[in-house]
């Protein structure tokens, strides 16, 4: 009997980095299982890559249970579901936005990881890739809730690496800088003009740039653990230092 086809689970795969990663991983030979809340968008992505679309809300434990119960085998988990809401300073920011960011980026990653770890271990060569952010390395004014959440993602990723030491599980954090996706549309609560301004006059990363990195990490040989990657556009040297044409 030959080796079974490895299975990759990608959360937040209905758009942006998650959708592009599902495609790149399918091209690299993985069977892909895609999770997100917008099932119509998710199904479109799944159809285009020959994957399986399953509804998932990472902020809801019962949704995570139903999703992970439906995953029979798991060799790779890409914890990508996340984002930011709001860009107010701490003095003006609202609890509900902080809670959204913590629940989605941090609790979501923890919940899905906890649920799939037994299957990742069973695979004999499991891998977890967490999508962090430059915002998890560097704080910036108006980033309070998001910076805190992505710093927490960085912390839990390192904890997981320590806890899995000696076991057949690899753990990686990929921290992109500016990537042109629906991220800013969500952050600015649907204000397209504000979202577009984030990418104006500069040459940001594309979701495919990040997906290529995800696929590269996922296809290293089993003894190689890529611990952390900071991936920035040439036009960005730190979270808020971005070159723009006049
Ligand atoms: P998008 O807004 O395009 O994608 C976010 C994805 O997360 C969507 O598929 C969305 O699906 C999913 N998602 C959001 N909330 C939930 C939830 N509760 N349960 C399940 N899925 C959810 O943005 P990006 O592709 O840019 O974001 C992907 C990741 O990359 C995020 O973790 C983000 O923080 C990170 N990142 C983004 C950067 C950027 O500049 N774009 C830079 C650095 C990191 P749905 O709404 O259908 O549930
Ligand atoms: C998204 C990039 O710089 O807007 O993680 O926080 S940033």
Automatic annotation (TrEMBL):
<protein>
    <submittedName>
        <fullName>SDR family NAD(P)-dependent oxidoreductase</fullName>
    </submittedName>
</protein>
<dbReference type="InterPro" id="IPR020904">
    <property type="entry name" value="Sc_DH/Rdtase_CS"/>
</dbReference>
<dbReference type="InterPro" id="IPR002347">
    <property type="entry name" value="SDR_fam"/>
</dbReference>
<dbReference type="InterPro" id="IPR036291">
    <property type="entry name" value="NAD(P)-bd_dom_sf"/>
</dbReference>
<comment type="similarity">
    <text>Belongs to the short-chain dehydrogenases/reductases (SDR) family.</text>
</comment>
<keyword id="KW-0560">Oxidoreductase</keyword>
<dbReference type="GO" id="GO:0016616">
    <property type="term" value="F:oxidoreductase activity, acting on the CH-OH group of donors, NAD or NADP as acceptor"/>
</dbReference>
<dbReference type="Pfam" id="PF00106">
    <property type="entry name" value="adh_short"/>
</dbReference>
